[in-house]
Specification:
By secondary structure, the protein is α/β, with parallel strands linked by helices. Helices cover 35% and strands 19% of the residues. The protein has 12 helices and 13 strands. Strands 1, 2, 3, 4, 5, 6, 7, 8, 9, 10, 11, 12 and 13 form a 13-stranded mixed sheet that branches. The longest helix is centred in the N-terminal third of the chain and has 15 residues, at 52-66.
Amino acid sequence: MNYWVRFYGLCTPLMVLLMAPVVAVAQGSPDQKIVDAAKKEGELVYYTTMTLDQSKMVVDRFQKKYGIKATLFRTGGGPLLNKIFTEARGGRYDWDVVVGRGEMVLPLIERKLVASYRSPETKMIEEQLVDKEGYWTAYYVNSYVLGWNTQLVKKPDVPKTYEELLNPKWKGGQISVDTEAYGMLEGLKRVWGKEKAVGYFKRLAALDPVLKRGNTERVQLVVAGEYPLILAYNQTIQRMASRGAPIDWLPLEPAVTQVNPVMLAAKAPHPNAARLFYDFVLSKEGQQMLRGFQRIAVRKDVEPDPPRLFRGFKIAVEDPEDYKDFDASVKQYLEIFKLR
């Protein structure tokens, strides 16, 4: 199991990876042979779970840069995986590159639907965010944090730890929890152990939180004052806070951090365009676009905006291949919150 915990200013035998200072390295030019071959193919098909408006800006930039027509399809993780499987069963292999969620990795590898590819851009990405076999590389990451409506909760009263969040004062629709935050449970299992993590989530469920799918809509509801607290991705909360909305966040340590990997199709119809696009999204230019979206880029030479998104607190980073029994994880999560 490739699982790692990274944090600043502290190190223990069980959680060891102190991020070294970043040294800027000049971004290299793509291999001209791949560029020429990709232009000859003239097309790219990109599947993704990243929001449509942002994904479109990425493919538009790629298309303008290389003159290669880019076709974009965007949907959620489950529907996207089903689409790929359905197409494969029918003998269709339409896509070249996919960016999805961590739980998509193993099913795609097991069905031999992704190819091994080690982008030259990975030299600027931490090894723990790059698959040793080359089947995936982190494109961006998300950290689960605690957000609060600044008009409803004063900062001194905000829970600062997981344990403080279980205070009975937050019982009865005071906390928003995602109906599909399976990764948060799995991440804490690996840090705390299964018994403690499951026990914690059962105590959280006993507070009768508001259960709803999605991060963006839930954050908007907190801003609107529907409930005071929320467990959600920090970059989603930060986008609203940066616009002046009455919301802020802090990490409950360790903050479980999910990897959103990029993968290359094993039977890509445009294999050179696929590699070129893969390199592009991991390049400094591509990662700086993520920074502009207030997402958390993975390159060492692209600082998050603001830096607090991925700096200064203890985080537990999942390896996508840790989802060895995803169905059981989903079932357990749904049972804890009585969603089935």
